[in-house]
Target: Leucine-rich repeat-containing N-terminal plant-type domain-containing protein
Amino acid sequence: MGGNCCFVHFLVAAVLAHFHGAVVGQYLNQTTHCDPADLEALLAFSKGLGTDDAGLVGWESPNDTSCCSWTGVSCDLGRVVGLDLSNKSLSGGISSSIASLDSLVAINLSRNSLRGQAPVELGRLPGLRVLDLSVNLFSGGFPASEDGFPAIELVNISFNRFDGPHPSFPAAAKLTVLDISGNTFSGGINSSTLCHAPVQVLRFSGNGFSGEVPSGLSRCKALVELSLDRNDLTGDLSSNLYTLPKLRRLRLQENQLTGSLDNALGNLSQLVQLDLSNNRFTGSIPDVFGKMRWLESVNLATNELDGELPASLSSCPLLRVISLRNNSLSGEIAIDFNLLPKLNTFDIGTNNLSGVIPPGIAVCTELRTLNLARNKLVGEIPESFKELRSLSYLSLTGNSFTILASALQVLQHLPNLTSLVLTRNFRGGETMPVHGISGFKSMQVLVLANCLLTGVIPPWLQSLGSLNVLDISWNKLNGNIPPWLGKLDNLFYIDLSNNSFSGELPMSFTQMSLISTNGSSERSPTEDLLLLIMRNSTGQGLQYNQVSSFPPSLILSNNLLVGPILSGFGHLVNLHVLDLSWNNFSGPIPYELSGMSSLEVLNLAHNDLNGSIPSSLTKLNFLSKFDVSYNNLSGDIPTGGQFSTFSDEDFAGNSALCSLWKSCHQAVQSEDEDEHHDMDTAKQITSIMLEVGFAFGLLMLWSALYFVRPWRIAYFRLVDSLLLDRPCVWTVVKVTSLGFRKENEVHP
Ligand SMILES: *[C@@H]1O[C@H](CO)[C@@H](O)[C@H](O)[C@H]1NC(C)=O
Ligand SMILES: *[C@@H]1O[C@H](CO)[C@@H](O)[C@H](O)[C@H]1NC(C)=O
Ligand SMILES: *[C@@H]1O[C@H](CO)[C@@H](O)[C@H](O)[C@H]1NC(C)=O
Ligand SMILES: *[C@@H]1O[C@H](CO)[C@@H](O)[C@H](O)[C@H]1NC(C)=O
Ligand SMILES: *[C@@H]1O[C@H](CO)[C@@H](O)[C@H](O)[C@H]1NC(C)=O
Ligand SMILES: *[C@@H]1O[C@H](CO)[C@@H](O)[C@H](O)[C@H]1NC(C)=O
Ligand SMILES: *[C@@H]1O[C@H](CO)[C@@H](O)[C@H](O)[C@H]1NC(C)=O
Ligand SMILES: *[C@@H]1O[C@H](CO)[C@@H](O)[C@H](O)[C@H]1NC(C)=O
Ligand SMILES: *[C@@H]1O[C@H](CO)[C@@H](O)[C@H](O)[C@H]1NC(C)=O
Ligand SMILES: *[C@@H]1O[C@H](CO)[C@@H](O)[C@H](O)[C@H]1NC(C)=O
Ligand SMILES: *[C@@H]1O[C@H](CO)[C@@H](O)[C@H](O)[C@H]1NC(C)=O
Ligand SMILES: *[C@@H]1O[C@H](CO)[C@@H](O)[C@H](O)[C@H]1NC(C)=O
Model:
C-alpha cells in the first residue's frame, strides 16, 4: 500500500491540467449552454443508473439546458469533456448512450456500485484519455478492440470483476498507465500488446495470470512500475527484466517464481521498491545493491534463499524496509547500520543467522519494527538499544540470548515499545526480574514464554496499564496469582499455563473489564503496522491493525491451582477460551458458566471436580472444544446443543458419569429382562434424538465457525502474514483443533 508513484499523480494532474484551462473558460463563459446532443446523452446515461442516485445534483431536470453546471460534468465550448462521478453511490450500469458524448476526454466513475459490462462504445470515444472505472462491480471481458481507445493514456479498471484475457490497446500510441489489479483476469501476459506504447505503469496485481513473466516486457523501456504480484506466475525471471532503465517498482510477490536472482539486478539503479516475497527463489541474494541510491524497500521474505545478508544494502541511504524473513540465510548480521538512518523495519526472522546483535543498529533511531526471531543469535541486548526511541515491535523469539534482567533494564527505556516477544531465550536458569523495572507504559503485548524462568509474577506488570496480551507460559514461575492481574484494565488474553502457580484463583478474574463486556469498541490500535487488509469480492478492504484480533482467553492449565471454579466466570460474556485443566481445582462445575456466551473452548480436565455437569452448558452455542476428563464427576452427561459433538474422551476418567454408551448404574443393567428391554428401547429412542441433536450441533458448530470467522482469519493472518513472526501461533491451533495438549510440544 501507499505504493502509488508520485509520478502517477503527476501524470494524472498533467492530463487533467491540460483541459482544466478549458473548464475554467467554460465557467467564465456564462452564456454557454450545453450541446443538445450531449444533454440527451447525459439524460440517457442517468437513466441507466439506479433510481436512487441523489448525488447527481441538477441531473433530474430534463429541461435544464445548462447541463455543464451539473454535478461532475465539465464542458469546453458547450461540449462535455469531463465526467467525474466518482464516489457518488451510483448503481446501475453505463449506458451505451455514452457514445454520443464524443468530446469526452476524461471519465471517472470510480468507487461506485456500477455493474454489468463496460460498453464497447467507451472504446469509440475518439478523444478519451483518462478512464477510471476502479472499485465497482463491472464484470465480463474488457471491451478493448484492435482500433479502440485511440487516444487513451490512463486506464484504471482495478477492483472490479472483469475476467478473460487482459485488455490490450494496440491502437493506443500514448498508453501510459494501465491498472487492472484486483479482477479475475487470467491467461498469460502478452507483452507484445503492451509495450508498443510508452507504458510507464503496468499494475496487474491480484488476478489469475499464469505462465511466465514475459521477457518481452524488457521492450517497455519507459516502465517505472511493474506489479504482477499475487498471481500464479511460474518460471524464473528472464534477465531481460533487469534491463529496464527507469524501473522504480518491481513487485512480483506471491507468485510461484523459481530460479535464482541474477547479478544484473544491480542494473536497476532507479529501484525504489523491490518485492519478490512469497515465491520460491533459490540461491543467494546477489550483493548488488550498491548503486540503488533510491531504494526504500526490499522484501525477499519467504523464499528459499541462502547465503549471507547482502552487505551492499548498507549503501542505500533511503532504505526504510528490509525484510528477508523466512529464508535460510546464514552468517552474521554484517550490515553497516550507520548508513541507514531511515531504517524503519528490519525483519530477518526465521533464518539461520548467527553471532550477536550489532550494537550499531541503535543508530537507526527511526526503527519501529525489529524482528530477529528464530535464528541462532547469542549474547545480550546491547545497552545502546536505549537509543531506539521509536521501536514499537521487538521479537527475539527462539535465539539464545542471555540475561533477561539486563534486557528488560535496557528495553524499559523505549517509550513506544508496544510488543515485546522474548520467547525461548534466557534458558540458562534465569529468574524473572522483580525490581528496578518501571517502564513499558505503552506495552500491549508481552510474551515471555518458554524461558525456564523461576520466580514469581513480577509486580512491575501492575503498571502496564495498556497491556492487552500477557503470555508467561512454560516457565517455572511459582507463588500465587496476584489479584491485581485481573484488574489490569486492558488485559484480555492471559496465558500462565505450565508453571507452578498455586493458591486459589483471584476473584478479580471474574470482573476483567474487557473480557466481561461484549464488543471491543474501545480498544485502541496497537501499532500503525498494518496487519491485514481483507478484501472481499467488491474489492473493499477491512483493515486489521489491532491486537484485539486475539481471542479473549484465560489459559491457566498445568499449574498447582486449588479451590473452586468461580461461578463469577459466568460474567465473562466475551471470553472465548477458558482453560483450567491440569490443576487441583475442586468442587462442582458452576451452572453459571453458561453465561460465557462467546465461549469456544472450555477445558476443565485433570482436576478434582465433583458433582454433575450442569445442563445449562448446552446453551453455549459456540463451544467447539469441551473437556472434563479425569475428574470425579457424576450423573448424566447433558444432551443437546454442542454436547452431541463431543467425544467420549472428553468425559473419560469420571467413573460415576453416565452416558448412553456407558451406563454408570451397573445394578440397573443387571435387573430383570423386561426392564432391561425397556431400557434398550429407551436407548434407541434417545439415540435417535441424539442424532437429531448431533445434526443440530453440527449446524451450530457451522454457524459458530461462520460467525467467528472474521476474527479467526484475522488472527491467523496476524500470526503469519506480515513481516512478523508473531507469538502464540500454537494458541490458534489450540482454539481450532481438538488435540491441543500435543501442540504444546511445539511451543515457540
Ligand atoms: C463563449 O461561447 C460562445 C459560444 O457559445 C463562443 O463563441 C465564445 O467564443 C465563447 N467565449 C469564450 C471566452 O470561450
Ligand atoms: C419541462 O418541459 C416540459 C414540457 O416541455 C414541461 O411540461 C415541464 O413542466 C418542464 N419541467 C420543468 C422542471 O421545467
Ligand atoms: C477519480 O476520482 C477519485 C476520487 O474519488 C480520485 O481519487 C482519482 O484519482 C480519480 N481518478 C483519476 C484517474 O483522476
Ligand atoms: C467518498 O465519499 C464519502 C462521503 O460521501 C467520503 O467520506 C469519502 O471520504 C469519499 N472518499 C473518497 C475517496 O473521496
Ligand atoms: C487505480 O484506482 C485505485 C482505486 O481507486 C487506486 O488505489 C490506484 O492507485 C489507481 N491506480 C493507479 C495506477 O493510479
Ligand atoms: C500477443 O498478442 C498479439 C497481438 O494480439 C498476437 O499476435 C500474439 O499471438 C499474442 N501472443 C501470445 C503469446 O498470445
Ligand atoms: C548491467 O550493466 C553492466 C554495466 O554496468 C553491463 O555490462 C551488463 O550487460 C548489464 N546487464 C544487463 C543484463 O543488462
Ligand atoms: C516460510 O517459508 C515456507 C517455505 O519456504 C512456507 O511454507 C511457510 O509457510 C513460510 N512461513 C511463514 C510464516 O511465512
Ligand atoms: C542451519 O544451519 C545448520 C548448520 O549450521 C543446518 O544444518 C541447517 O539445515 C540450516 N537450516 C536452515 C533452515 O537452513
Ligand atoms: C511514539 O509514538 C507516538 C504515537 O504513535 C508518535 O507520535 C511518536 O512520534 C513516537 N515517538 C517516537 C520517538 O518515535
Ligand atoms: C511445560 O514446559 C516445558 C518447558 O518448560 C516443556 O518441556 C513441557 O513439555 C511443557 N509441558 C506441557 C504439558 O506443556
Ligand atoms: C465487502 O466489504 C465491505 C466493507 O467491509 C462490506 O460493506 C460489503 O458488504 C462486503 N461485500 C461483500 C459482497 O461481502
